[in-house]
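Hello Y.,

Per our agreement to keep a running log of every chain we model this quarter, I'm adding this entry. I've kept the format consistent with earlier entries: sequence first, then predicted structure.
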Amino acid sequence: MTQTHPGWPEAYAERYRRAGHWSGRTFGALLRSWAEDRPGRTALVDGDRRWTYARLDAEVDVLAAGLRRLGLRRGDRVVVQLPNRAEFVLLWFALQRLGAVPVHAMPGHRRTEIGHLVRVSEAVACVIPDRHARFDHRAMLRELLAEQAGSGTLRHVVVAGDPGDHRDFVRLDDLLGDASATGRVDPGDGDAASGDLALLLHSGGTTGLPKLIPRTHDDYAYNARAAAEVCGLGEDCVYLAVLPLAFNFTLACPGVLGTLTAGGTVVVSPDPSPQTAFALVERERVTITSLTPPLVPHWMDEAASGEADLGSLKVLQVGGARLPDDVARALGPAIGVTVQQVFGMAEGLINVTRLDDPEELVHTTQGRPISPDDEILVVGPDGRPVPDGAPGELLTRGPYTPRGYYRAKAHNRIAFTPDGFYRSGDVVRRLPSGHLVVVGRIKDQINRGGEKIAATEVEEHLLTHPAITQAALVAAPDEKRGERSVAFLVCAGPPPAPRELAAFLNERGLAAYKAPDQVVPIAAMPLTAVGKIDKNALAGMLSPG
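Predicted structure for the entry above:
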């Protein structure tokens, strides 16, 4: 197979094997061993449907055989765009058992993003729902196939639901076939090796089309296992998958894979609303779940009604973006949980606050690395390390942080140092304890007449205003100052005027130049496919002047 991305140097690979980080087992083999160890335990719940570990393993065999009949083989890339339903888990493991490679797409991706993922990965198949969130994914794939007619790699479209009238679309249920006629598919049948590519994640940035992140069986299994160990998951844990299953946070931090590794139960939530989630927490006695910050106020409001029994819920992880300190302080008492901040990236490194950390660290930091072999550098503009407590760009390498993007040789020379550190673009402060405080992004900065404004800092102060429930600060072109700052606000009641905000921020000790030049009230924040505030969309609402 042609080399599509840099691997770990052999000296590092051997080091990670000796440390026990890399197990030498594929996900197809891991699922088989879990089923043999705990056949009757409940592995997966989706609505009224339930799978024991044994049943999950058997149905993965059946689906893997169906995919093989379709023509899929080891190394084939398959774009997977399914909403939160059990079929995502079944399909993901079936592809692993064949040695095929799922390419993760978010439910909100459309033709531009899906076409990009197909082209870059050279995918031979796409798996989609028929309709989701009032969007017809079949029509999108028909357009995509027409665009690449005669020149593309895409040969198969598999539909979860009704394939419609397209004669070449295959119904996912039809691939399940007859279990008795299919037989057992051994994990070795696909000839996958633990160092092979296991999946392609898409980068979580909000600028440009997503880059693809290559994850191997060895590194991604360790990613999930190490996160599960740090989070104290065991056979009694019940994880509620609220965010998209294709999201790295939901799948492996520790998420679905960490829960299954620990012998627990995964419950799939079809949507992230607190009403849906709280009903599942009560019914399935959920113990842990994960949210992004924009969802937190809605969950707190719903919990205040006191209608749901949330007594089983012990840990609420929040990640994907910076959780403001004041919100972190209020969240635990509001829902009756231990808050765990998670700062990670699909490119690898995961940091979490520990469940026994002092409250001040939980409320004001985004955790510390999960692996003893995670290497961290915090550097200034000159590339030299800065002292603890000083802000700088986070660079990292380690046993689950790949050494380059997929088919992105030119970009890899910018995104990675010659000795393999990933340049995250995140600005952090490292405390003597090793905990990291996220200050912002290198590019999430407003240059207002030479004065640099860190958007994250101002947003956190804005969110302490009693009328403001969500805030995002973006740069707008300005003839006099180069850029001006614009605060998009979601408010409970009348929005504060710029002068009122300036006075409020002044009282909090913020420099005057950091006060927003303009305030734009909006009903709701636009979100990216992974639930982050979409600042590109906000910037698109503005015009020069």
